[in-house]
């Protein structure tokens, strides 16, 4: 291994250079005495981390300086945040305590750093450590949003410098980032950071696709720049003539958003029309902003024909995260659709720097959606018993959803996520109204609780004092607030019923001469396969377990082993044993890469050559997923401790693996015959299932085939593309 030679003098010079760059980035927000505070924090961080180095071999201090720089430059935060960013790892990694920080820098800084310090300690084994950390971070958000913003800056720098980490750590951190941190950046209006986090996550979870799109974008760069130049020059001319001060430029879309489009529409890179967007930034006074935006819209749509279905007006009704902009898609001079975003300088700063810019413009927009959102976060965090992972899933679902706008009978505007139901609306108004809701009137028409609301609906809620939350409500509500309140009501009701069950069970055991104690209760719960004693009491109260069942228990000599959830570690050691399985030499699993029992996940059907990982399930042993599997980021972000390293063994038997191919083309006589002969005769590949449909002359076929490895699949796809009339051949995840 190459030895890392340390040049202390050169490093000190570099640290001074980076510190000066940080001060330049802070300049716009500096007040009297701020420079001294930043210097004091820098000196403390430098001293605390002096012996520490990053995985790359660089001095550790580079990291806090970079985080502070991102906070200042890319998010626009002020001195308190810069101080916290410089000190964010000091309490966790060194002997300095929060009390020391408070004495030096005050209560506010200490509180933010406490929020930033990761939790250590023991958690419920069914919950992920990361889920708990994330929840704690959100708890501090209720007090100070800067915790989240600095955390995002910290995550962004870690993602930018992850090359030296072990592959399994890269995967876990990248998955966590795409699952939690990118949606959070989006929610806080930090679009540039959100896009970069998504791109960097993809760089590690799906490197081949990332490199492929990056290469394609690079190849077309000169052509794209010429097109943008031709498109914007007439717009600039007219704006100049009319005396409208504005900047007009084109910017490429992020690699992740291009990939999303390719995947959702099942189209190749060449068919993604909006590889870039044109942005018009107007210099306008606050009072005239709306008028100026629509004036520019009128100029652009006079020049180029707009697509009437693609107008998005977030100027009249801003998004919940404060985003304001006018989006339209127009037909360019070469018959290509182009997205144009029109906004003012103020709107652009809010779009780029999100929350931080909001405080700056707060006077002009006092009732902003971000304040409402933080209030919602406080409400969600209000139910402390909620399982961290349930909480995380609900929260994640609400982070990324698009909004619809609903009116109350008195005309108040309520923002809800897309797909929200009448019951979600009821809980949004008030928890008690949601809990007692029996129906609703939407636009004066009676509808059931699970009715999906549309943008602009006016909703009146009907309640009854006899109504209580039901289990099936959870299947159709979408807001985290509604789910959380329903769960806690059901839990409370279940607890009350279980209390009665406890007394009933005590009486029944007495009649069977069985001692009522904790040990026996646990044994009975295990015998009936209940995860907890509360489940047992509840089922006794409901009459599901009666005296006859308890007699069976008393007569039974064999007590079932403790439930799998309570013996998770034993479960792991039991699973990771060498076994004699026909194809067990195909995949090696774990840190020491052993041959162990596994199954291939049907959600992504991995084949040799795919980048893979193992996931330890509760009941089905180890499942092997592709790292680009649709479920991978959720599994890695929530259950990092159950992820196992896995790789294909180099010497593989010729085992067949199931995978799917989607084919689109122009329908023609004998097309199916041509396709099947390429698959079966030329490649000797077995077809497991074939579904085809033809609509208006367009042929679509989904074929599940058994292949030996990724090379064979790639060759097969390339040969199928050569069949006359076929326009697209892609691999898809599973039969579902």
Overview features:
about 725 residues; alpha+beta; globular
Termini, distance in Å? 47 Å
Number of strands: 19
* SS strand fraction: 15-25%
Give the oligomeric state of the chains in this entry, treating copies of one chain as homo and distinct chains as hetero: single chain
**Poorly predicted runs:** 119-127, 362-367, 557-585
Summarize the structure.
Helix content is 48%, strand content 15%. With 736 residues, the chain is α+β, with helices and mostly antiparallel strands.
Break the fold down into its secondary structure elements and pairings.
Layout: H1 8-26, H2 34-48, H3 62-73, H4 79-87, H5 90-93, H6 98-105, H7 107-116, H8 129-141, H9 146-160, H10 167-187, H11 191-205, H12 207-219, H13 221-241, E1 246-252, H14 255-265, E2 276-282, H15 289-303, E3 312-313, E4 326-331, E5 337-344, H16 345-360, H17 369-381, H18 388-400, E6 403-407, E7 413-417, H19 422-429, H20 431-435, E8 437-442, E9 445-447, E10 459-463, H21 480-511, H22 518-527, H23 533-541, H24 547-555, H25 568-575, E11 587-589, E12 599-600, E13 612-616, E14 622-626, H26 632-638, E15 643-648, E16 657-666, H27 671-682, E17 686-695, E18 698-707, H28 710-721, E19 726-732
Parallel strand pairs: 2-5, 12-14
Antiparallel strand pairs: 1-2, 3-4, 4-5, 6-7, 8-9, 8-10, 11-15, 13-14, 13-15, 16-18, 16-19, 17-18
Helix pairs in contact: 1-3, 2-4, 3-4, 3-9, 4-7, 6-7, 7-8, 7-9, 8-17, 8-18, 9-10, 9-11, 10-11, 10-26, 11-12, 12-14, 13-15, 21-23
């Amino acid at each position: 291994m190459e030895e890392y030679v340390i040049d202390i003098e050169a490093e000190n010079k570099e640290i001074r250079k980076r510190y000066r760059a940080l001060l330049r980035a802070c300049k716009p927000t500096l007040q009297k005495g701020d420079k001294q505070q930043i210097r004091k924090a820098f000196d403390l961080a430098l001293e605390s981390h002096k012996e520490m180095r990053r995985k790359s071999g660089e001095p550790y201090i580079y990291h806090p300086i970079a985080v502070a720089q991102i906070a200042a430059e890319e998010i626009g935060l002020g001195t308190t945040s810069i101080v916290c960013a410089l000190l964010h790892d000091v309490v966790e990694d060194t002997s300095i305590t929060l009390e020391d920080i408070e004495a030096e820098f005050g209560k506010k800084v200490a509180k933010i750093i406490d929020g930033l310090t990761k939790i250590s300690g023991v958690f419920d084994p069914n919950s992920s450590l990361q889920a708990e950390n994330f929840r704690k971070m959100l708890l501090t958000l209720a007090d100070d949003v800067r915790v989240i913003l600095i955390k995002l800056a910290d995550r962004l720098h870690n993602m930018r410098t992850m090359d030296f980490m072990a592959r399994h750590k890269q995967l876990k951190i990248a998955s966590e980032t795409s699952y939690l941190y990118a949606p959070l950046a989006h929610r806080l209006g930090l679009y540039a950071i959100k896009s970069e986090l998504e791109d960097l996550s993809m760089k590690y979870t799906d490197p081949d696709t990332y490199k492929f799109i990056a290469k394609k974008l690079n190849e077309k760069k000169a052509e794209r720049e010429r097109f943008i130049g031709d498109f914007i020059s007439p717009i600039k001319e007219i704006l100049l003539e009319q005396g409208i001060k504005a900047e007009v430029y084109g910017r490429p879309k992020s690699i992740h958003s291009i990939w999303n489009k390719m995947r959702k529409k099942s189209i190749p890179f060449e068919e993604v029309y909006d590889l870039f967007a044109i942005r018009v930034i107007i210099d306008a006074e606050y009072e005239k902003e709306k008028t100026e935006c629509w004036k520019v819209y009128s100029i652009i749509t006079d020049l180029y024909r707009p697509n009437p279905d693609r107008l998005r007006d977030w100027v009249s009704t801003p998004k919940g995260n404060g985003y304001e902009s006018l989006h339209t898609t127009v037909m360019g001079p070469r018959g290509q659709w182009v997205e144009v975003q029109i906004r003012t300088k103020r709107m652009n700063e809010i779009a780029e720097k999100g929350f931080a810019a909001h405080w700056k413009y707060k006077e002009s927009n006092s009732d902003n959606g971000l304040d409402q959102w933080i209030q919602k976060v406080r409400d969600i965090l209000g139910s402390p018993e909620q399982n961290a992972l349930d909480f995380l899933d609900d929260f994640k679902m609400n982070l990324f959803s698009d909004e619809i706008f609903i009116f109350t009978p008195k005309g108040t505007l309520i923002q809800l996520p897309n797909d929200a139901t009448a019951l979600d609306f009821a809980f949004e108004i008030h928890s008690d109204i949601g809990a007692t809701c029996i129906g609703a009137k939407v636009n004066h028409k009676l509808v059931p609780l699970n009715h999906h609301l549309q943008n602009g609906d006016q909703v009146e809620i009907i309640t009854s004092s006899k109504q209580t939350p039901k289990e099936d409500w959870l299947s159709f509500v979408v807001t985290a607030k509604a789910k959380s309140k329903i769960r806690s009501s059901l839990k409370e009701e279940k607890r009350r019923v279980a209390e009665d069950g406890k007394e009933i069970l005590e009486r029944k055991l007495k009649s069977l001469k069985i001692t009522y104690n904790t040990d026996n209760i646990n044994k009975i719960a295990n015998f009936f396969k209940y995860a907890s004693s509360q489940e047992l009491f509840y089922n006794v109260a409901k009459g599901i377990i009666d005296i006859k069942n308890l007699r069976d228990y008393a007569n039974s000599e064999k007590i079932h082993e403790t439930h799998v959830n309570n013996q998770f570690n034993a479960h792991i050691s039991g699973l990771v044993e060498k076994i004699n399985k026909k194809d067990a030499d195909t995949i090696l699993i774990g840190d020491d890469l052993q041959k162990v029992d596994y199954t291939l996940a049907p959600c992504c059907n991995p084949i040799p050559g795919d980048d893979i990982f193992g996931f330890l399930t509760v009941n089905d042993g180890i499942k092997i997923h592709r790292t680009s599997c649709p479920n991978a980021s959720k599994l890695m972000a929530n259950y990092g401790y159950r992820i196992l390293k896995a790789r294909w063994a180099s010497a593989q038997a010729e085992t067949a693996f199931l995978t799917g191919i989607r084919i689109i083309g122009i329908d023609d006589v004998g097309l199916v015959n041509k396709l099947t002969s390429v698959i079966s005769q030329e490649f000797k590949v077995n077809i497991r299932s074939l579904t085809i449909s033809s609509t208006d002359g367009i042929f679509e076929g989904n074929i599940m085939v058994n292949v030996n490895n990724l090379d064979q699949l790639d060759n097969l796809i390339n040969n199928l593309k050569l069949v006359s009339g076929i326009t697209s051949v892609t691999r898809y995840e599973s039969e579902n």
